[in-house]
Amino acid sequence: MLKLYDCAESPFCQKTRIVLAEKDLSFETTAIDLQAGEQKSPDFLKLNPFGTVPALIDDEVIVYDSTIINEYLEDEYPHPELMPSDSAARARVRALEDYADNAFIRVTDAILEETRKPEGEQNTERVTAARQQVGRMLAVLDGSLSGRSWLVGNFSLADVAFAPRVVILPALGIELDPEWKNLASWIQRLNQRASVHDLAGLDALR
User: Fold this and answer.
1) Which residues, other chains included, contact 160 with Cβ-Cβ below 8 Å and sequence gap of 6+?
2) Which residues, 6+ apart, have CB-to-CB distance to 202 below 8 Å?
3) How crowded is the C-beta side of 72, counted as CA atoms within 13 Å?
4) N or C: which end of the chain has fewer CB within 10 A?
5) Domain coordinates of the chain in residue numbers?
6) Which pLDDT does position 38 carry in this prediction?
7) Has residue 181 got a pLDDT over 90?
C-alpha cells in the first residue's frame, strides 16, 4: 500500500494527489501539520532530510519532492500515461513543470501570503506586482495552448503542475483577459477532471 505524507493545502502535495487519482491508485495518508513544524520532526526527517512535503513510501521505497514522486509513479504505474513517449516532448513537460514549481506557484504563494493577513497589514504593492506577474505568465500559457487541448500532447504532468493554482485564480483576485480563450478552455477542462475537481484543499479557495 502506498503511503503519502501530505498537507492538503500544499500545491505540491496536490500535484501528487492528482497523479494518484489519475492512476486510480489506493494510498494511505498521513497529514503533516506544517504550521506546527511536524515536517521538521526527527521521524519525518528520516524520510525526507529536506523537511518538505510530500513524501511517499511504496513498500520499502521512499521518494520525496513532488516532481520526483510523480515521475516515480509514472515509471512504476504507467497507466494511464502522463508523460509523452518522445524525448523532446518529455523535455517540454519537465521544463513546464519546473516553471510551474519554481515561478508560477512561488508568485501565487506571495499573493496568498499577503491576502491572508489582516487588511491593514497587507503589502498591497507586493500583491499588485505579483498579480501583474501572474498575468504575464498566463499570457505565455495561453500562447502555449494555441491549437492544443493540453500543454504537451495529451493530459500530462505539465498540466498537473499548474492545476492546483490555475483553478483558484478567482480567489487570488486574478481575472482572465477575454482574449485568453485558449487558457479559459484549458482551465475549464482541468476543472472537469475528477482528479482536480475533487481535490481536497481547494474547496475553501474556489
Assistant:
1) 15, 18, 19, 22, 70, 82, 97
2) 14, 164, 167, 168, 196
3) 15
4) N
5) 2-76, 87-197
6) 87
7) yes
